[in-house]
Design brief:
The protein is of the alpha/beta class. 43% of the residues lie in helices and 18% in strands. The chain contains eight helices and nine strands.
Length: 207
């Protein structure tokens, strides 16, 4: 969805725009780079291993993309960054560097950085799997708040099943790259239709 890899089938449509196709002279043709960049600009992503810039302060990490991508004035970008850092509980860390933060704090900075571009869709790729167990809760708290407060669509890849059940509108269970089952969380977690889903949930939830 972030165009790090190009799909060989299917379609990706975000907010009415196709990612890989465009209209030209009344015909549907492969999208050019400008079109892909424009549509991709509607998507924010938080990686499993933070991917913060180590030589930049927390404030700079969060404000740099709006300044260069959206051409937001520096003062405005930094004010927005401070608001987002406050939102994720890191208002007191604006002037420190990533190396001075815990894993949970780094991940919260990464979330603020992705939100700074005001995306229509946020992608979260196993954002808690690289964290020590005691730090998982602080990141899940931020995601929970975002799910309840923001209009942004959130897509999470996660093995935190109880959390997924709590905040999701729709759950898709994937096994070896194939969609096994999808539906409302109440259905998936309490009355799954597929045996593979039942096996997985039993193993994970009992563990």
């Amino acid at each position: 969805m972030m165009t790090l890899e190009k799909p060989n089938s299917g379609e990706i449509e975000i907010d009415g725009d196709s990612m890989w196709q465009m209209r030209k002279n009344g015909e549907t043709v492969p999208a050019n780079r400008k079109h892909v960049r424009r549509v991709r600009g509607k998507v924010g992503m938080v990686f499993q291993h933070f991917n913060l810039f180590p030589h930049m302060t927390v404030l700079h990490n969060v404000s740099v993309a709006p300044r260069h991508v959206l051409k937001t004035p520096k003062s405005e970008a930094e004010e927005r960054a401070r608001q987002l850092l406050d939102k994720v509980g890191l208002a007191d860390k604006v002037d420190v560097y990533p190396g001075q933060l815990s894993g949970g704090q780094k991940q919260r900075v990464a979330i603020a950085r992705a939100l700074a571009l005001q995306p229509a869709v946020m992608l979260f790729d196993e954002v808690t799997s690289a964290l020590d167990p005691e730090l998982v809760g602080e990141v899940l708290t931020v995601l929970r708040d975002l799910a309840h407060q923001d209009d942004t669509t959130m897509i999470l890849v996660t093995h935190e099943m109880r959390f997924a059940q709590e905040i999701s509108d729709r759950v898709v269970f994937i096994d070896h790259g194939n969609i096994v089952e999808e539906g409302a969380p109440d259905h998936i977690f309490t009355e799954p239709s597929e045996e593979r889903t039942r096996e997985f949930l039993k193993a994970v939830l009992e563990a």
